[in-house]
Amino acid sequence: MFEKIKDFLYDISDIFVSLLIIGMIFFAVSWKISDTLSVDVNAPISTTEAVATTEGSLIVVTPIETTDAVESTDEEPEPSTEPTTEQATQPTTQTANLENFTVNEGELGFTIGTNLEAKGFVSNKNEFVKRLIEMGYDSKLRAGTFKLSKSDDLDTIIRILSGQKR
Length: 166
Known about the structure:
Layout: H1 2-36, E1 48-55, E2 58-65, H2 85-89, E3 98-103, H3 109-118, H4 125-135, E4 144-149, H5 154-161
Antiparallel strand pairs: 1-2, 3-4
Helix pairs in contact: 3-4
């Protein structure tokens, strides 16, 4: 009779210790993941935006500076030069200014954004991560070496890093 009680207590203590170990592992893993994936989505976004206008069959993208305060100037904006037919038929991305960018195996979007910001491909890593999530490409990034231009927009960079063609 005492042997059965003793066996029962040993079994219960084994189960309790196992559950305690599983709980500690769960806590440690979730703490590390939440620390690794933390992104400040409320951080200020880049101060440059782009305005796209259509001129005939050509789309012209003009960067503009944004500020918190509204500034009034009496200056007239400079007239834009009309592109010639030869300029309109050329591809928008030039291969001469492409640079290599390497994504290592297992790198997360935030780390990739940090590296892109450090090399000058994006102006704000948080903006990159936010757009990455908006587009649904946060789980589609690939490891490898990619050809990027510092003039590429976020969407183009994200598509290239997910393995799509220019």
